[in-house]
Amino acid sequence: MADCNTPTDFPSNQISLPSLGAIRFGKLFADFARVKFEVYNLLYTVEAEQEDRDSRIESVLHCERKFHKWAKSMPQSAQPGHASFPAAHTIRTQDRVPLRELFRLHIEYHSCHVGLFRVYQDIRESSPTSVDGLDDFRSRAVESIRYVLQLVDAVPLSSSPFVWSVVFFLPNAAFHMCRHITDARDEEARSDFDLIGRTIQFMRNVINSGAERTDLNIYYNHLVRSKPYNAVKKTFQQPIPPRPLPRIRVVPPHLNRDSEASESDSEAD
């Protein structure tokens, strides 16, 4: 298909172009599509997956920078992660199409980071040695996974179009959160596992709502039958062993007194 020139100006009547303040969704979606296309070529083609480890790592970090640059093109208050952006429960109660479209775009942005996290995990499993920059990337990617899973607080089941526009982001995020959890004694891990449980319940509720969407059933079944999920589930169902305490040498009181007496005798001599 050949490229063609398209008008750069917005129609005067703004038909079919939802806006929220200074945000124009048409341009945002178009720019985001271009970034995703470049990321696909860098990470997910056969040629890309055959590159050496260092090249793959640099590609992951480069792609993260591309997504970040795209997010910075929004007005500051509308950027993913900005403190002034409405919380999930606020979005749930406000039936505003532009706001929900922006929230959906945030979800897709963070889901792209989930995809980068998958590549990171594959690199880490094939070569577990530490790499500068990847530990920080891992922390940011895990925060993106949490953001996606928290969309269950923002989506009312009564809004069917909104539900179906975001629900398919959940299984992949939950799967990779399971891959991330390694220590059941960690309080954050317990919170993450609870979030996975709420996500699975939300998907089950959507499936039981009577919607004829067998594709969601397939994703749901793949998640609950996956090795990472069942391994984490088994870990949290077992009694959690306490963390080992640091070994401290305790001197019995009578030996301690003898030691003090010896020191006194030495000083007297």
Describe this structure in words.
The chain has one domain (21-239). Helices cover 64% and strands 1% of the residues. It is built from 12 helices and 2 strands; from the N terminus they run ββαααααααααααα. Helix 6 crosses helix 8 (170-180). 21% of the residues are buried. The model is unreliable at 1-7, 10-18 and 248-252 (pLDDT under 50). Residues 236-269 are annotated as: Disordered.
Number of helices: 12
Oligomer: single chain
Major sheet description: 2 strands, antiparallel
Strand order of the largest sheet: 1-2
Note the gap between the termini.
Answer: 99 Å
Radius of gyration, whole Å: 26 Å
- The sequence of SSEs as H and E is EEHHHHHHHHHHHH
Q: Fraction of residues in helices?
A: 55-70%
Provide a short characterization of the protein structure:
Helices cover 64% and strands 1% of the residues. The chain is mainly α.
Provide key terms for this protein.
12 helices; disordered N terminus; single chain; 269 residues; mainly alpha; 64% helix
What secondary-structure arrangement, pairings included, does this model have?
Elements: E1 19-20, E2 23-24, H1 25-43, H2 46-49, H3 53-71, H4 88-93, H5 97-126, H6 134-149, H7 160-166, H8 170-180, H9 187-208, H10 214-224, H11 227-237, H12 253-268
Antiparallel strand pairs: 1-2
Helix pairs in contact: 1-3, 1-5, 3-5, 5-6, 5-8, 6-8, 8-9, 8-10, 8-11, 9-10
